[in-house]
Write a structure and sequence with these properties.
The complex is a heterodimer of chains A (433) and B (598). By secondary structure, chain A is α/β, with parallel strands linked by helices. In chain A, the strands form 3 sheets. In chain A, strands 1, 2, 3, 4, 7, 12, 13 and 14 form an 8-stranded mixed β-sheet that branches. In chain A, strands 9-10-8-11 form a 4-stranded mixed β-sheet. Chain A has a two-stranded antiparallel ribbon with strand order 5-6. The radius of gyration of chain A is 25 Å and the shape is globular. Chain A starts with a helix and ends in a 5-residue tail after the last helix. The N terminus of chain A is likely disordered. In chain B, a hairpin with a 2-residue loop joins strand 1 and strand 2. Classes of the chains: A alpha/beta (433), B mainly alpha (598). Chains A and B meet through helix 1, helix 2, helix 3, helix 4 and helix 12 of A and helix 14, helix 16, helix 18, helix 21 and helix 22 of B.
Chain lengths: 433, 598
């Protein structure tokens, strides 16, 4: 009797062993209505593949936006490429999307041979702001469609700590000293991601010299421009004040961008964070005190704004369906569900502002968008403007800079600034790794 | 030892010895066409593994106008930190093997605690490296509000030194020094269960009588270990060391998910450095050289362990009504139980943290660790689903089933031909060595050329080619394992069947009955490996591919604000492979410890 029972038990167990396999294949479709889509995607049939660099909330918002889109005869597959978006155009790229949402307009000029021009009527139909046209065109032919704009000259702060926002650099240094005196760290810095440090530097450089800024974000930048040295020394003057950086430099270097937002608004350990406009929905979600969220323009930038954008480009060879998709993206209504749902989206298309039903921007977003529309330039962020090779070097150089000058390293500032310039020059000359 | 109360009796049993050769001299007549059964597997291996590997070799040695070692010099110059780190990782792997052996030895005295301990140790074996990485990022989060270790250290500091202003902050767990602790803990958690489980099976297979006799002879504990236990464990040790050394050398995803960018330089390993080099212009040659170096090392380790694996190692059928072990002194039992419970607690903690975090709302999970009270919520799961969890799950399941099915279709006939196909002996020997060398090939050796080919034909990021790559990667090991099971069928049975009227059909029939457990083991290992894979998908299809591990990686870019959905996705993605592994673990262990080569 016991032998039979054991066999039964063993047989049952063996059968049960395969159960998860069966469940995984059979039960899933019940929870997912898109088996056809999945199979279609599996074989890339009639699918426009769109490479994006977004993740988290932004990726989800883009997916929701696409839910409103019912194209004829094809489906849209989103490829979340993360940081690899920068290499999505190179011939070595593995997942070859037909449409790429490029965060670095500079790459248009260096990868022209892999791009198809946009449909000719897109820009002429008055859909798009003219200021970006030069940045995304080559010989007058537009290759990129700005879709989402970013205002990178924003400082988010806790309104319960700061009653008068600084408008100039000395103002800001004085404010920091007052905060340190009261026992609050003024700044949260996301040093583990390279771009927040680069944004900080970009803003100061724009304050120092818009001309040098244009030179450094253009092709073949000259890194020994004295304006850059001055900007780095200015930056060092703020970062090297003891107690200025929440947790100190070493901890800032393991803090990622969302951690810095939480440091200020979730844990109240710091008073301010330099972060782009799209930080707002994240801050609103994780804030401790809803009344305390404020934003001021980066002191000293005046009317100018460090900007960024996600620019749709067509990878060669782009079919009719990819063209059709870009045409839809250019429409004023396309981003409406993102703007009104998740938020943190500034429409590149000026006609979106007056569309009906219109965009429901928050007061902060409206101000940041207005500044962006009236700014000169565009002054694209140093990290995004100069292409991927420089971006990585700049990220490392600035992390080293922060490590050297942070926590009272005032005397090391001059030397550290020279090191950054030397590193970037070496990268430019091709000897850097 | 003789029970005086029962009559002493002597029982004799007459047993025939199984015939070891065919009953008729000479081989059976076979059609040449059955050798064709091996061709699909060979074709896939040549097309998907060998050809791209030859291309990588070519790239590694090609410099400008000729062949040379220039790329290797550049690779060393640009990656010496990574190479040193990888060597340190190999030492870590050996350390894990030793720790696992000690725990396996101790576990023999655990009594009923052994089963829960085994369960706690084996659960992480089924998890992907990404999931393990997520768990350790949760535990070692630098913010004392979120990371348990940071909170504990801060609490202790404030208790003894008093609260400070500005608040005292815990050391940088993910900084250049302590990040090693996090990485090594994660690696140990992933692999210790495998090591302990296999060693324990090996220890149990040593006849207790041999040990008893040695004890009676007055041989000390250490001498017994050296002269009896360790030699008996040689085959299983070879498998364990091979598996761990290969996985330590190929380490990639763990470093990628745990280490923040500014620390990535000093903690780079060969695989991550290789990946960085491939994205730099002019880096293709040195990257290929680095891949070749990595492969050469792993292949040498594999070839060294071949003789160890060849040892025939029979697992004796232990009688179920085993003599209960002599009760140990009370204090020792107490120490052993405490140790066992401690290990169970330490091993279960990361999983419980992940589960508890997944069951908090996204905002609660993002701001505070599990110990802060919060209303239980399925909000994180809902958000994970909105972020594309279902479609990733579906794609992963499709990929894993496709690859596993394809693997069985290719591997079973190939193993059949290799064992009974009447191939010349040198060919079988040679194929074994070839298969061992192919089985340990790191994806860096074939990913780049494959990715480019798939990209050029517009098929990258789609499942079918990816499944083919997974199949090819798992094929050598599957054939080796299956071949061993095929050859363990007594030769006279096979020969008899082959000479009979039904011929091949009966032969296959018998073979199937014999190898069914091995087929299950192969299928389970392939399914779990593909389900948990990150490196192959990522390197062949790029970040745009849709498997779960890539979804997790994408979410981890904004770790703190996606903590809830990330933990929820991790729980869901770990559920299927962990169940598959747990339910089939005994079959898998039996398959692996039965010996792979002969």
């Amino acid at each position: 009797v016991s032998a039979t029972r054991r066999i039964n038990r063993r047989t049952t167990l063996r059968a049960a062993g395969l159960l998860p396999l069966v469940a995984a294949t059979a039960a899933l479709p019940a929870g997912c209505a898109s088996v056809g889509d999945a199979l279609g995607n599996a074989f890339s049939i009639n699918t426009v593949r769109v490479g994006v660099g977004w993740s988290g909330d932004e990726l989800a918002a883009f997916h929701r936006m696409l839910d409103d889109f019912h194209p004829h005869g094809y489906s849209v597959q989103v490829l979340p490429l993360g940081d690899q978006i920068r290499t999505a155009l190179s011939p070595n790229a593995k997942s070859r999307p037909e449409v790429v949402m490029l965060p670095t307009p500079g790459l248009i000029h260096t990868n022209l041979q892999y791009l198809d021009p946009l449909p000719a009527d897109l820009w002429s139909s008055g859909n798009l702001g003219l200021d970006w046209q030069a940045a995304v065109s080559v010989n007058g032919v537009p290759y990129g469609l700005p879709f989402k704009l970013t205002n990178r000259s924003a400082v988010w702060y806790r309104a319960d700590l700061i009653d008068r926002v600084p408008t100039s650099w000395p103002d800001w240094l004085a404010l920091n000293d007052r905060l340190i005196g009261r026992g609050t760290a003024p700044l949260a810095l996301a040093g583990a991601d390279g771009w927040p440090l680069a944004d900080f530097l970009s803003n100061i450089l724009l304050t120092v010299s818009p001309g040098a800024y244009t030179q450094l974000t253009g092709p073949r930048p000259n890194w020994s421009d004295p304006a850059l040295g001055q900007a780095l020394r200015t930056l060092g003057a703020m970062w090297s004040v003891p107690g200025a950086i929440s947790g100190g430099a070493e901890r800032a270097l393991e803090m990622r961008y969302p951690d810095a937002l939480l440091e200020v608004f979730g844990y109240h350990r710091a008073a301010m964070v330099v972060a782009p406009d799209h930080a707002e929905p994240v801050i609103r979600r994780f804030r401790r005190d809803p009344a305390s969220i404020g934003v001021f323009p980066f002191p000293g930038t005046g009317d100018n704004v460090v900007s960024g954008g996600d620019i749709a480009v067509l990878r060669k060879p782009a079919g009719d369906q990819a063209n059709d998709f870009v045409r839809w993206l250019a429409g004023p209504q396309a981003p409406m569900s993102w703007i009104n749902g998740n938020g943190g989206f500034l429409a590149a298309n000026p006609r979106s502002d007056n569309a009906s039903p219109g965009p429901n921007y928050t007061a902060n977003a409206r101000r940041l968008l207005a500044k962006l529309r009236h700014s000169g330039g565009p002054y694209i962020g140093l990290f995004d403007g100069v292409g991927s090779a420089y971006g990585t070097s700049l990220e490392r150089a600035l992390a080293d800079f922060l490590r050297t000058v942070g926590d009272g390293g005032r005397r090391a500032v001059d030397q550290a600034a020279r090191t950054v310039i030397d590193t970037m020059t070496a990268t430019e000359n091709g000897s850097g790794g | 030892m003789i029970d005086e109360s029962r009559p002493v009796s002597l029982r004799l049993e007459v047993a025939g010895r199984g015939m070891t050769g065919p009953p008729v001299a000479g081989g059976p007549r076979r059609g040449w066409n059955r050798h064709l059964l091996v061709m699909p597997a060979v074709a896939v291996l040549v097309a998907v593994l060998v050809t791209p590997m030859v291309i990588t070799l070519w790239q590694a040695f090609w410099i400008g106008g000729g062949l040379g070692f220039g790329n290797f010099a550049t690779a060393w110059e640009r990656a010496n930190t990574a190479i040193t780190n990888s060597v340190l990782w190999l030492l870590t792997a050996v350390g894990v093997v030793v720790a696992g052996f000690v725990i396996a030895l101790l576990s023999q005295r655990l009594g009923e605690l052994w089963r829960p301990l085994l369960l706690a140790l084996v659960i992480p074996v089924g998890m992907s490296t990404m999931v393990v990485g997520v768990m350790f990022r949760l535990i070692f989060d630098p913010a004392p509000e979120r990371g348990a270790v940071s909170a504990l250290v801060t609490g202790l500091h404030d208790l003894f030194a008093g609260p400070a202003n500005p608040p005292w902050l815990p050391p940088a767990w993910l900084g250049p020094g302590l990040v090693w602790l996090v990485l090594i803990s994660a690696f140990t958690l992933s692999w210790l269960g495998f090591v302990v489980s296999l060693f324990r099976t090996g220890l149990d297979s040593i006849s207790p009588d041999v040990i008893r006799v040695a004890k009676v002879e007055g041989i000390g504990w250490f001498a017994r270990l050296r002269t009896i236990v360790l030699p008996a464990l040689r085959p299983v040790t070879a498998i364990i060391v091979l598996t761990l050394v290969v996985s330590a050398a190929r380490m990639f995803d763990l470093v990628l998910i745990v280490v923040p960018a500014p620390v990535s330089g000093p903690t780079a390993v060969v695989a991550t450095r290789w990946w960085q080099l491939t994205s730099v212009s002019g880096g293709a040659g040195p990257a290929a050289a680095l891949a070749v170096l990595l492969y050469a090392f792993v292949a040498v380790v594999a070839l060294i362990s071949v003789p160890g694996l060849r040892h025939r190692w029979v697992v004796p059928q232990r009688p179920d009504q085993d003599r209960p072990p002599r009760p140990a002194p009370r204090w020792r039992r107490w120490v052993m139980s405490t140790l066992g419970v401690l290990i169970i607690a330490v091993w279960a903690y990361p999983e419980l943290t992940m589960l508890a975090t997944a069951l908090r709302g996204p905002v609660d999970a993002g701001l505070f660790g599990w110990w802060r009270p919060a209303a239980p919520s399925l909000g994180s799961f809902a958000e994970a689903i909105r972020a594309g969890l279902w479609s990733s799950l579906l794609d992963t399941a499709l990929l894993a089933v496709l690859a596993t099915g394809l693997l069985l279709v290719l591997a079973v006939p190939a193993a059949y031909v290799l064992s009974w196909g009447g191939l010349p002996r040198w060919m079988v020997r040679g194929s074994t060595v070839l298969l061992v060398v192919l089985a340990v090939a790191p994806p860096q050796m074939y990913a780049m050329p494959l990715g480019q080919v798939f990209g050029a034909v517009g098929q990258s990021g789609t499942q079918l080619p990816l499944a083919l790559v997974h199949t090819a990667a798992g094929l050598p090991f599957a054939v080796l394992l299956l071949r061993w099971k095929f050859t363990s069928v007594p030769a006279n049975v096979v020969a008899g069947a082959a000479l009979g009227d039904d011929g091949a059909r009966a032969e296959l029939d018998r073979a199937w009955r014999q190898v069914r457990p091995a087929v299950v083991a192969v299928a389970v290992l392939e399914f779990v490996q593909v389900w948990n894979d990150f490196a192959v998908s990522f390197l062949v299809s790029g970040a745009g591919a849709n498997p779960l591990s890539l979804l997790l990686w994408g979410q981890a870019r904004q770790f703190s604000t996606s903590t809830g959905p990330l933990a929820a996705s991790a729980v869901v993605s770990a559920l299927v492979p962990v169940l598959v592994v747990l339910i089939n673990w005994r079959t898998v262990v039996r398959g692996l410890t039965g010996g792979v080569l002969r």
